[in-house]
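Thread: "does anyone have the structure for this chain?"

Original post by V.I.:
We have the sequence but no experimental structure in hand. Need at least a predicted one for the grant figures.
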Amino acid sequence: MTAGAPVWITRARPGALATAERVRDLGFEVLVDPLLVVETLDAELDLSRVTALAFTSANGVEAFARLSDARGLPVFAVGRATAKAAHVEGFASVSSADGDVEDLCELIAAGASGPVLWAGAKEPAGDLVGMLRGCGVMAKGVAVYETLDRAPSDETLARLDAPTTVLLHSPRGARVLAAILRERPSPTLRFLCLSEAVAAPLREVVEPGSVTFAPRPDESALLELLNS
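Reply from O.Q.:
Generated one for you, tokens below.
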């Protein structure tokens, strides 16, 4: 793709803004218009007998941090972006699985010394708590945020007939976009997805050759696809 061509960032804020900065640094024009919005829930956090926290997204870290001042527990994070968010929020002991939920489960099973609390989405993409219990780890979960669908602006929709690369970070975001494209096909779009699971909803509505997913579920790997 030619440097300077527009890149539509669809992930929710504040993550969208961090991604936008990275994409601009690579020399691309950026369009930030999320297809999702994140809202913190009024959750009650019971940290008694908890020996570690688990996060499967930066949104989970940020929502937990708004709800609790506790920063002394060790953190297990699914990947580097989530681990970075935990460091930013003041957690001192952070371990990253650098992968997906299955990798995180393995990391926790090998390193947890007692019960683990997962704080994440109201509708999670994977069942980390169930996986941990299946591995013999005492675990419980609490929903600290929910993700809601958001319609793109009319200005964004008007640009979809021009060549544009779309970055997609989640299966839900991809499903929202797929629904839009069923009503408004846009054959000039190119779709770069964080993982095969993210790409799946789009394959039903667009040309297969227009969808690519990163070799690993990591934003650095995703952004490397911009110049491919």
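V.I.: this helps a lot. The chain has two domains: 6-35+150-227, 38-147.
O.Q.: and The longest strand covers residues 139-149.
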